[in-house]
Amino acid sequence: MSYADITERVAEAERAAGRPEGSVHLIAVSKVQPEPRVRAVLEQGHRLYGENRVQEAEERWSALKPDFPDTDLHLVGPLQSNKVRPALELFSTIHSLDRPKLAKAIARIAQEVGHSPNLFIQVNTGEEPQKAGITPDDLDAFVAECRSMDLNIQGLMCLPPVDEEAALHFALLAKLAERNGLKGLSMGMSADFDKAIKFGATHIRVGSAIFGERVKPA
Description:
The protein is an alpha/beta fold. The chain has one domain: TIM Barrel. The protein has nine helices and eight strands. Strands 7-6-5-4-3-2-1-8 form an eight-stranded parallel β-sheet. It is globular.
């Protein structure tokens, strides 16, 4: 696979779903990837990237951003409350708002710095005890709480259980978003983004299919 292959597959999935071309935002997940691989995709014109960790993103993009200043960075991994301030400086969008404590921290620091990021609420659609996220039963109340704090909630995000049919979770997330008047759906990764697009994904998170297998730190 390559960046060109993935963009063509995205376009094909959009057409198959009867959706306008360009309606799906491809987040190239650059976490744990060597800088030359990321730079190569940047040089092909792609500007939307996802990172898992604030510190890793700071280190990587301090070198790359001067050459590609229009890059749009999204945080797609978990966010610790004590990392909110640097996250707001670096990322336009956070896809992992997963608990009330974090919502309150973002609201407080957003007031201090004078801007709020776009936010996706992470929903634990499989209600897995080891996984972060708001349960479907608690979601409506959490959305209302976030809105009361003037947080900029764009949509919902999910990570389906690995041993279950992803389409069921994509359909559930779409239903929950519609019920709460949210248009953004951050769902689908390298193995299943075609299905996610069929169910209305607005943002897909693709890493290894673009860059190759991750290179873990030594």
